[in-house]
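Subject: Protein record for review, amino acid sequence with backbone structure tokens
Why sent: The fold of this protein is of interest and is recorded here as tokens.
Notation: Tokens come from a learned vocabulary of local backbone shapes, not from coordinates.
Attached in line: The record itself begins immediately under this heading.
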Amino acid sequence: MTSTAPRTDPPPPHRVPVVVVGAGPAGLTVGNILRAASVDCLVLETETREFIEQRPRAGVIEEWAVRGLEKRGLARNLLDRAELHSACEFRFDGERYRFPYGELTGSHHFVYPQPLLVTDLVREYADARGGQIRFGVRDVRVHDIDTDRPSVSYTCPETGEHRVVHCDFVAGCDGARGVTRAALPPERVRVARHDYGIGWLALLAEAPPSADCVLFGCHSRGFAGQMPRSPEVTRYYLQCPPGDDPENWPHERVWAELHERLGASGAPPLTEGRLIEKRVLDMHDYVVEPMVSGRLFLAGDAAHLVAPIAAKGMNLALHDAFLLGDALVAHLTGGDDSGLGGYAQACLRRVWDYQEFSQWLSEVYHGTAAGDPFRAGTTLARLRRLFTSPAAAAAFAEQYLGTAARY
């Protein structure tokens, strides 16, 4: 006899080895690594599954990060569907300068929007590997991280019930505004922060890319960038005052500025389309040290934020997740503590390398619009050097691709 009873989710656990707070790329990658090793864990996420699978975010993934996902069985769709980019183009002084970093290094970028990656990771974790995940939870709190019996509490969205899950470790992967970063003892935490004093108007346009690669416009009116996302959707950025109101940027003004700042001799005009997203990002970075306190390990934006200037944020989150997931498995299945002991140091070497490159690249992008003739002159000198010095070109390509940071 076939039962027609509706399928119900299993009851929430009262104890698991690891609780992962946050279902972004970092948290879901950690969860997948644990489940692949048959380690039980619970992922808690304040948003719905539909929301995280549609939230517009980054789209550029470095090759080493893709290979890390592939090694862990998490890159099938990515490898089938991602676009490969092996060049970028700078536009300054009214001219176009193509930078073929693939020819210099043999490496390339993968363009795969973060919502697609998150969708893949959720399906693999929850549907294929049987991982437990709770969406829409509220009032998440982390407790007793300096003991060997930490716990995480939350409110169930369906019943309003207060639940407590005990664990051995907490992975804090809930982003810049999450609760896990706030759980670090303030007397033991240093937050190093840098504000660029500029804003970027982040735009999504229902329009095909106007070039086959990323475009960087270094213009006296401000930076502009084109980042292809798919054949139908393109990400654009426009430098603007920090804290600017997106409503100050109607359709006509946006496209006029993009045409001006990305214009160059011989370049085809941009293909315009409906703007489906407009928001202002104030450019800043921060690094939280230490990334570990007791049994709480931070990863991704909970531990560090790098402005989207160099498209490094999702790559850093994946780097953290690889190290943390592997270290937790080594400890929980074999008693090897070396990975957990060296986790923060290994993460921070790459974090600071990427932060330094982001600062350098910010000057290249924004120096010509600073209103300072001396600064504009040195910025143009940097740009010209990329196209006249093989050594400068090789150094830039290594940092742009992340291949210089082999940690």
